[in-house]
Amino acid sequence: xxxxxxxxxxxxxxxxxxxxxxxxxxxxxxxxxxxxxxxxxxxxxxxxxxxxxxxxxxxxxxxxxxxxxxxxxxxxxxxxxxxxxxxxxxxxxxxxxxxxxxxxxxxxxxxxxxxxxxxxxxxxxxxxxxxxxxxxxxxxxxxxxxxxxxxxxxxxxxxxxxxxxxxxxxxxxxxxxxxxxxxxxxxxxxxxxxxxxxxxxxxxxxxxxxxxxxxxxxxxxxxxxxxxxxxxxxxxxxxxxxxxxxxxxxxxxxxxxxxxxxxxxxxxxxxxxxxxxxxxxxxxxx
Length: 286
Known about the structure:
It is elongated and about 80 Å long.
């Protein structure tokens, strides 16, 4: 005779009511605290909901600034704007037509398109951009009309594609890039717009593609360079391969070695079943 599946101990009605009271109080029936709720947020900007039926514009982060009593500074006025690519917008403008203060624009269905701030015609503070479907696509910090600070971009479904730091329009510090799947693509350190420091790129499956170090944009020291089937490991000097490089498959079996120790010459040894089986010398002629 078969046995009925067991779903846990049978409780009396009184025990069930007691268990329910504990759960409402944040404690599990076993006497342990219930696990806390976890909120995962991909994007920072939280615009209000668009109300296309009533024709009301979607509210940007910070609220409907153009409805304030004095929304603009330095004598600028909040005016409706109809200029490409923003045919439906509000902007703080000076008498000479210069944007100075808040700016917001919308798509035809009243969803937000762009939102940010100008300082005498130059972008400053944080700027946001959205796709026509309402997804945040970029959130960048500006100063003097140049990227300055954190700059982020997103793809479909709110997947982060890049998160980098800028200084006066130039990449500075750490920059992370991602595939549309959300997995890492490149991690790069920059100095004055040039790769300088640790670097690592990744294949779509998440494994390392290239890993090493840059000095003023030039590869230096030990590097690992891989594809889906094999990896090469060796050193760079002044951006050129030097010394002995080894190629191995995904199981760590040596496939070949290349020796760059002789100037103008590369000696390659191929391995067959773990043993050297072919030697080739390549010579560069001036």
